Amino acid sequence: MLFRLRLTLLSLFILAFFQSNLLAKKFPVGYPECLKDDKNTIILNSKSKNQFCPLNSKLGHKFFIVDFTSPLKQAQVDWIEGRIFGDTLIKNTPPYFKISYMKIDDTPPQSQTIDYSKCRFKTGNKSQYVGEQTNSGCEGDKFIKEIFSAWEALNIKFKNEFLITNAPEGKQSLIFEYLFHVLRESKVDFTSEYPQRELVIVSDLMQYSKRFSFYNHCKTNLQLIKPNKCKSFASLLKNKKIKNYIDDRKPNKDSLKNLKITILYINHDYETRDGLSSSLVKLWEDLFKYIGVENYEIVKQLDIQ
Partner of 41 at 20 to 30 A CA spacing, among 64, 210, 220, 229? Predict the structure, then answer.
C-alpha cells in the first residue's frame, strides 16, 4: 500500500514537472509570462519611452517612417491608415513588440524626433500569437483588457494627430537619409538587439536633395516638366559623388540582421505614367541589393485620380 502511494505521488510529480516545462516553453524567449513578472515586468509608466514594454527584454520592433514631403490626398491617408494603424497593426504585430512612428519632412533626420514609440499591449484574447491571451494563473482578464483599451485609445489619438492631408510641400525629400539614419543610429533603438525588426517606409520614393534628385534621374529628357521614366541604378552610380555618398552611409552587416524592409509605395498622379512607377520601384530594389538588404517587400497603392 505504501509502495503504491509513493508511486502515485512520484507520477503526479513527474506529470506536474512536464506540464510546467510545457507551459514555460510555450512563451517566446524573453516574453513576460505575467503582467507583473518578477524578472521581467511590463512598464506601465506613461512617462517612460518604453511604455507597455517588458523591462528586461527586447522581442521585436516595427518602425514606420511616413513621407509627408508631398501633400497627401484623403484617399492616400485612408490607404495609409488601413495599412499601419487599427486592426491591421494589431493583427500583424505580436504582443510586446515595440511600435514607432517618425515623419519625413524638411527636418534633417539627425534632428527629427520619434513621434510615437510604445510596445503593442496584448488584447487578452486568443490570437495567432503565443501569449496574447490573459494568463489566468497570474493575470486578471478584466485588468488586462482595461490596459489594452488604454493602449488602443492612445494609438488612435496619435493616429488622428499624425495623419494629415494637404501638409505643406517639402523643399526636399530625404528618403535615403532617413533610411540610413534609422538603420545606423543607436539612439533610434532599432538595432539588431531585437530578434525581429521591420522597417516600414511609406513614401512616393522620389528622393530629392542637393546631393542627388530622382526628379532629374527619372526623366528621359531634362526638358520635361515631370518625371516619366527612371534610368538604372547602375547609371546613378556612375556619378562618383553619388556613389561615394551612398557608400559612405551604407549600414554595416550587423545593422541588417533580423531585418525586413517594407515599402508602402504611394502613387501621386504623375507616377501613374507607364514606365515611371515600374522603373522607380526597380531603382529601389537595386539600391536594397547594393546595400545588402535581402528581405524586402514593395506594396503599391492602387492608382487614384
Answer: 64
CA nearest to 167, candidates 72, 103, 81, 101 = 72
Distance between CA 274 and CA 84 in Å, rounded?
Answer: 28
- Name the grid cell of 172: 526636399
Asked if 277 contacts 300 with a C-beta cutoff of 8 angstroms, the reply is: yes
pTM of the model: 0.89
How many whole angstroms separate alpha carbon 130 and alpha carbon 22? 13
Q: Which residues pair with 297 in a beta bridge?
A: 262
The residues near 40 (Cβ < 8 Å, ≥ 6 apart) are: 30, 32, 54, 55, 56, 57
**Cα of 192 vs its chain's centroid, Å:** 13
Is there a contact between 132 and 153 (Cβ–Cβ < 8 Å)?
no
> Can you give the pLDDT at residue 221?
84
Q: Which CATH number fits domain 61-300: 3.30.1300, 3.40.50, 2.40.30, 3.30.420?
A: 3.40.50
Ordered by start, the domain boundaries in the chain are 61-300
- Per-residue pLDDT of 190-232, as tens digits, reads 999 999 999 999 999 999 998 888 988 998 887 788 888 999 9
Residue 6 makes CB contacts below 8 A (sequence gap 6+) with: none
What is the DSSP pairing of strand 98-104 with strand 116-119?
A: antiparallel
